[in-house]
Amino acid sequence: MTNTGTNIDINMPKLKRCADYIRYLSLECIEKAKSGHPGLPLGCAELGILLYRYILRYNPKDPKWVNRDRFILSAGHGSMLLYSLLYLAGYNGFSLENLGAFRQLGSNTPGHPEYSLDEGVETTTGPLGQGFANAVGCAVEGKILAQRFNEENFELFDYTVFALMGDGCHMEGISYEAGSLAGHLGLDNLVAIYDANDVSIDGHMNITFTEDVGKRYGAMGWHVEHADIGNIPDVFAKLKKLKDMRQGKPKILILKTVIGEGLNKKRNTPDIHGAPAGIDEIVFFIRHSEIRDIFEKKYGKEAAEEENRLSNIMEARLREKKPLDDSESAAFMREILDESRQVYDKWKQKLEAYKEKHAEKHDVLTKYLEFTLPEKLQTKLLNYEHGKPDATRGISGRVLNLCAGYLPQLVGGVADLAGSTKANIKEPGEKEIPYIQRDMFFNRNIAFGVREHAMGAIGNGLALNNVMIPFTSTFFTFFDYMKPAVRLAALMKLNHLFIYSHDSIYVGEDGPTHQPIEHLNALRVIPGIYAFRPANDFETAFSYLYFLQHRNGPAAIITSRQKVPGTGYPTSNSTDRQELYNQFKKGAYVFYETAGTNEPDIILSASGSELPLALETAKLVEEKDNKQVRVVSIPCMELFSKADEGYREQLFTPGKPLVLIEAASHRSVNLFYDPRIILVDIESFGVSAPGKTAGEHFGFTVDKVYQRIKEAL
Amino acid sequence: MTNTGTNIDINMPKLKRCADYIRYLSLECIEKAKSGHPGLPLGCAELGILLYRYILRYNPKDPKWVNRDRFILSAGHGSMLLYSLLYLAGYNGFSLENLGAFRQLGSNTPGHPEYSLDEGVETTTGPLGQGFANAVGCAVEGKILAQRFNEENFELFDYTVFALMGDGCHMEGISYEAGSLAGHLGLDNLVAIYDANDVSIDGHMNITFTEDVGKRYGAMGWHVEHADIGNIPDVFAKLKKLKDMRQGKPKILILKTVIGEGLNKKRNTPDIHGAPAGIDEIVFFIRHSEIRDIFEKKYGKEAAEEENRLSNIMEARLREKKPLDDSESAAFMREILDESRQVYDKWKQKLEAYKEKHAEKHDVLTKYLEFTLPEKLQTKLLNYEHGKPDATRGISGRVLNLCAGYLPQLVGGVADLAGSTKANIKEPGEKEIPYIQRDMFFNRNIAFGVREHAMGAIGNGLALNNVMIPFTSTFFTFFDYMKPAVRLAALMKLNHLFIYSHDSIYVGEDGPTHQPIEHLNALRVIPGIYAFRPANDFETAFSYLYFLQHRNGPAAIITSRQKVPGTGYPTSNSTDRQELYNQFKKGAYVFYETAGTNEPDIILSASGSELPLALETAKLVEEKDNKQVRVVSIPCMELFSKADEGYREQLFTPGKPLVLIEAASHRSVNLFYDPRIILVDIESFGVSAPGKTAGEHFGFTVDKVYQRIKEAL
Questions:
Q1: Does pTM surpass 0.90?
Q2: Which of B176, B214, B374, B586 is deepest in the core (most CB within 10 A)?
């Protein structure tokens, strides 16, 4: 009778009633909101109860418990199921009032679940397939923590990650990518459940999705089981078996369900996927459900009998804030709370004992669980110098390894371009990259393969718990392949570091498919992510420092393929590194200025590898035209656009001609640019040619920029 | 001895020599360019010859022949293989000089193949998995053309589409999505060839990719064969079998190859995947190859014997423009030209006979092959009126169907949101959408399933031939899932129409995951695509008209979920529709103006569903503050930013306050905006709430915009 025992008798009458109550809650709240997706909650109500009542290990009083089992609703549109379960399971964040505010402004019950560990929502889902890939990330984290910290008699980390997927999740390529990698890594702490109701928004699956999903997962090295929601004991037995089974394979339960179960005409139809059921269907449901007695008690036996009166009752209910209560269902779900608490306390005691017995490891673990930036690392990043000319991707690789030396929780990987983006952790001189593999989770590099999208979402999964610090990396042009995951990192404010190299036409010979043009500004318009495009050694180190200090969302570090000069300190500025970093944090700073000037005649600004071009051109203008110049480096446009106006005007003196040099498209938005701006950008696709030639072709030479300036002034 | 016969003896000695010549060409040209990917060309040289010499049906003198077999190099980094084959097969576009300019500015031999039907390059590849999905699109087109036009004894369309995929292609989610749909549709005119060399950039496949690819394709309903490149007769037999087999299943040949075949130390290593082999390896190759005699003849027997001398010879060769010639290999490959020509002529004669026998169908076919915009349709679009309030997605659906009535080649579909985006073709009153299905290719809607990425690339595949006019559609927020395909459509200038609905926070209850914020400007910075965000009925119709007239690249039509007023004609403007369209083509036009004004006190501009807000606010300013106002509608920012300066200034009178209202992020780039601009945009993620509430929350009300204006002035 617990969620942790082995000999469990399922109380079928109580489960059935509770399932119908969950169905009713979804129907009422969705009807009230006049929008939502009842299909999944109605089809998976029993499954949800099995999980939260009999299978999952959790403590609603400490939702963030690091060794809890995770449940991820990858089919996020079925959010009412999750909210209902969290309410019934006793999570403080979810009351009936919260459920009644489904899809309303400011509620914690939005249309799709939004990441909130405090309330038991493990991740934001909705965009299909993402949640499943997040779950793969959580499972990797589980493996890492287990292999690094578990000791004999101290199985501190043995949690299981569950993900509920719909047909849509399976159709998305990201789920294939994530599933393939999960199979390769042998993540046997992962259980996927496929809500196989064979219906999506546009119709039954026979119009578009007829593959053999079990065989597909088998091909990827998964263990596959089948069950039918009509046979609850079997579903329970399979879930239990899959949870316990640790044989080097991730596991999937293909569960036949019926979308809209309990309804009349809309049962098993696409109509119920994504729209309220309608009063008639709700009335039908109530009259044929296990919770009919609640209505009889509340409104009289006859009221519950007559369709018209029930219909009027429902109309009235929809105007109320709080949905119908069923204390029996809540009591049933919460019967396990005591025992759950005992399991939780026992784990806490074990952790205390671990502290005694494995003091050193416990220390390390504490550093994982309570992040502080090591002061030494901070100092080193602040004073980082590389000096000689190098590509910023190379510098980034060195800085990453510097950080890795202090932060064992820093793990990540590359989508089959590790040698190119330099985003790998290894000892100096080590030739082979030590990869995380099946049973080798003490390593720190994940060979993601050419699976950018899953990489992004698995990285997000690694970040969810706020224990690991993940980085993921590929060519900047392939940011496109993983954008949906980057967006979710920004939306969830995950501390996930994206490292993108080969950032412009200077990629060269690989040609237009491999040369980012629009990506820089496409990234900059995403809310909540900071895009750093460092120009040299210290800007690269500062970008890492900012990410590690800021800890309130993702950052992208965008690096060059080609070498940039060893620029050293800005000539006109303080060599006080702290002061320089303070300016960097405002997104831009004066890199060079004609000695003694206050009011320059012209300002040249640039980001990344175009900074030296701005500097050289400025010096030409200074010399040849005897003008006073200022060069502004803009490593982070977002920070600069949020800096106080005084600082912005200090750099971009109003009224003065302002050159902006970026090998990136500012197309169409430049329509609104200040007329004083001389924009040197790229508004077509690139060319296959050596990088230098490509740069010349697009006018990125001192002569051509100088000419542009002369024409404009 | 032909590429079309049935009893074929393969001339093994000639094939071997030609294969080594192809290897050598790749080695020399890549070495000369100091960059490139020799691994695949070396591993697949024999395969390429089998295809172009014995399997494919084509006519190098008419590369666009509509019934040619297609060969798509999905693993685009192996471009030197394709260029070598096209040169040897006798395509005019490829000479030895062209090959010698590999990866140089302006050459037609760029790092990755770039779409050029005139030269035999079927599509742009490089971003992995895209080419394969394009091939699926080509196969769908083949089925459509066959089912619509073939008649007894007139099998006009029976071409086969081949796609060569690497390990990387298979790891990408897009290939899974496309493969799953291809299996569902039973595309038995499609043959994938998997270059299974088990090596990618970062290492051998055992570090990341260990699934059973054959089983995976089996699960998706494909016919699977295996072969080893070491057994050429077997590879040939399998290719022939798969080409001929039409049993309702797409087919894949899993071909074991050796990356870098023919080299010494780098054979079968990741080192040869993406970097020049180096002189030593080339020297080793020559000495052990079938083309050693060329060197012996050219440079003397001893020269070819001695490594040092060969090394010097190679160094010298690399400074030459033209790579080594081998007339024997070219002659061997071109032996089939005569018979190819006969096959081609026969088809042309058949087409003539078809014209006699099936005159009506021939007429229709001609309209497919030689597009002209029907005048009636043009007139109807020009004068389109819907009148009453409706969402622009609904108007878009009507306009799409209007176009469909005149353009049978218009086909497309939606990623499981057909009821929402309204992008489906059906008769008025028809309830069910008539879907293209296995053997039902006379229909016009493809149920893409929740496979946005493959949808985009399959749509590209449908557009490649410039015969069909494809449209694809989903929610605007899921543009992210298909961005890599949109980029390629823009790069290739494909006439592919992207229809995105639910374009802003007005999506409402579905919440931030489903509300586009950054997408509008992320789309606008892509070169070569026109993003239209129509505000009403005629702007929607004009967007379609522009796309159909322009015919030089993709367009995106971005529509609202919520209703917009039935705005009718702009009050201050001509009711001459042609004149209005002329203005629309400049991207923006005056929608309203205070009567008699020349110099407005303030200009309010907006796109899409924010136009009514601009109008109402303007009228408030006009009335309350007695100011002269102008309202500018900007349906297409890209067109407006390219309009002549005079027109731009006519609308945005310099020096006047300019309000820009868009429920979209202009974050960070607004740093460079003209100080006169009052920007009403959204720079955070959305909220789950009814659309109207969300709009109010973000300040999109007349009162709040009015207040912003008052504060700024």
A1: yes
A2: B176
